[in-house]
Specification:
By secondary structure, this protein is mainly beta. A hairpin with a 2-residue loop joins strand 2 and strand 3.
Length: 210
């Protein structure tokens, strides 16, 4: 198996880590999805840490995908059409279909599942079931997107601070075209990633220019 431990100048993964303002030692994860962006297209590769080296998962290989229709940004804002650049944790998986083969916690979408994208709501950038305490003027009803959210993984962007207007509902989901700010890959590609992901290895996703 090939390893990624070459000099910074010749190693695209190490360059991407440095561009995100990180070091290898500063990434406390054993699994990493590298999203290399060119315009609105992306190449995804999965890696596992082996000591001080990153080992590409050749059984998954290189996967083609798409990002936000306006590209990537390190200063994303709500509704701007950009995918956030940087290094983020991968949260639980979810979907409209039954749980696939994965070790990730999986939450099934219902007809009352909403993801709030109204910056004025106290539930901004949160999954809410039902409208009992609805205080929002805008939210995605997840079941309205049967193809995109057949399967998905939460990208933990602005999920801890939930700063109003900084951006919401950033996912790795199914799809074959540019998005409103998520990352989309074909369904079979996402199923490969889900099968590989292990929450015990603290998976992260690194998004940057190629």
């Amino acid at each position: 198996m090939r390893t990624y431990h070459s000099s910074l100048g010749s190693d695209p993964l190490l360059r991407a880590i440095a561009a995100a303002g990180r070091t290898q030692a500063g990434i406390h994860s054993a699994q990493l999805v590298h999203v290399s962006v060119r315009l609105v297209s992306a190449e995804l590769r999965c890696f596992e840490r082996g000591g001080s080296e990153w080992l590409p998962i050749d059984t998954i290989g290189s996967l083609s995908g798409h990002i936000g229709k306006n590209g990537i940004s390190s200063s994303k804002k709500e509704g701007d059409g950009y995918t956030p650049a940087g290094l983020f944790k991968l949260g639980h998986a979810f979907g409209i279909r039954e749980k696939p083969e994965t070790k990730m916690t999986y939450r099934k979408v219902t007809k009352d599942s909403f993801w709030v994208d109204d910056p004025a709501s106290r539930f901004y950038n949160m999954w809410i079931e039902g409208r009992q305490y609805a205080d929002w003027s805008s939210a995605e009803r997840l079941s309205d997107y049967p193809r995109e959210y057949a399967y998905a993984v939460i990208i933990e962007y602005n999920t801890a601070e939930r700063l109003p207007g900084r951006g919401s509902a950033v996912f790795l989901h199914c799809g074959n075209s540019p998005t409103s700010g998520c990352i989309a890959v074909p369904e079979q590609a996402l199923l490969k990633i889900l099968k590989w992901l292990d929450p015990g290895k603290s998976p992260v996703i690194l998004i940057g220019d190629s």
